[in-house]
Amino acid sequence: MFIILSALSIALFVSLKNIVYNPIDKNLLSKAEALDAMVDESIDSDFKFSFSDTKGNSFQFNVSKGRMWIYSSQYSKYFFQIRSFDGKTVKKSISLGDNDLPFKHHLKKIETIQWKGKILRILNYVDDKNKIVVQVAYNAKNEKDILDNFMLIAFVLIIFVMFASAVGGFIVSKKALSPIDRISERIRKITEENLSGEIELENAPDELKVLIESFNDMLKRLDKSFKQKKRFISDVSHELKTPVSVIMMQSEIVLRKQRSADEYKKAFSVIYDTASMMSTLIERMLLMARLDYKRNKMKFEDVDICDIVENAINLLKHKAEEKGVDVLFEKGDVFYVKVDAVTMLEVFVNLLDNAIKYNNKNGYIKINVKSDEEWVVVEMSDNGVGISEEELEKIDEEFYRIDESRSKKTTGFGLGLSIVKKIIEIHEGKLVIKSKVDKGTTVSVFLKKSS
What we know:
Oligomer: single chain
Radius of gyration: 51 Å
CATH superfamily of the largest domain: Histidine kinase-like ATPase, C-terminal domain
Distance between the termini: 52 Å
Strand order of the largest sheet: 4-3-7-6-5
CATH class of the largest domain: Alpha Beta
Mean pLDDT: 80
Strand content: 15-25%
Structural class: alpha+beta
Order of helices and strands: HEEHEEEEEHHHEHHEEHEEHHHEE
Number of strands: 14
Largest sheet: 5 strands, antiparallel
Number of domains: 3
């Protein structure tokens, strides 16, 4: 603002200076030309100028008093002086008295100078024919005062406007930014133990409502994430506590006294099964932890999703046959999606394993692949035990098991669907689960089509 106001003031000053000095300059030039034209004229009058040039030639001009009053008046605001090229004064006006106008070696045609306490606007008119310089000056003190007053007023106004703008800007910005101060205060109070509070939208300006809503949504997501991590740690501790207790108990039994070979074998069998279960749990937990890290290391390529589904069926074919579950899938059209084949196989192995595990004996699983303009959809339906609506909302949470009374051998650790969901999210897909108790479950995996 200071630069703009200063530039504007300078532009106005230059414009005003031209307005003030242009009439004076034109008047000086007119008088200089008139005075120069009088040289070498002979008119019958009672007023005469006469002088000799540098070569000794005599010059004279005569004008009437009526035409020469401005040149001969003692109180005139105009000053006239005729000089030879070497600076010698030939003639000067009465208004100069005993003084001479400044005469410089390098003459400027017109300039403003300080002289004898006066501000002069002086014109140096060069007459090459007669080898003279006609100097005409005007006392421009009043005009200079006008320009000086303008600059003073402009300077005061700029300072005033800058000060008023600073004060006004401070007041307006403080009022406008007060909601941000409240947001900052709320942020300073946020800890991992206190994420549930929201910033009020009631008195917030419209410009900040979107920001506050986004911030509140972020707090909700963080709160949910922290709670999930806390529950995850608690569940991990709980899941590992039981097998560790079993191993310690079996070890204590065999170490307490000498046992038979069968007793040792039975105890070590229990320890081995328990350790295997722990190993599976740890592998699942590590996979969950590594998924985000592995996101940038995944190899995304165009593959036929039917090939991956077929591989998953082949891996679990023996398990399905043991339970008498028919897996119905006919590979037909080719549906290309851009995925990481290894992790996507993990998705369908988990889903198919759940469909077999929670199915009725001699049940069936139907797998259908279809597509629209945007998505390729793998739909897996079974006629198993189904899931209630309440449990359906929590089924993809870590360590959540539908029926805690069932053994871990049947239901696993409750990490399968959490892994499935995270892998699908990494692939920017969707997981939709629909189910009814005692009627079966339909799981749909939406993956973006290859472009």
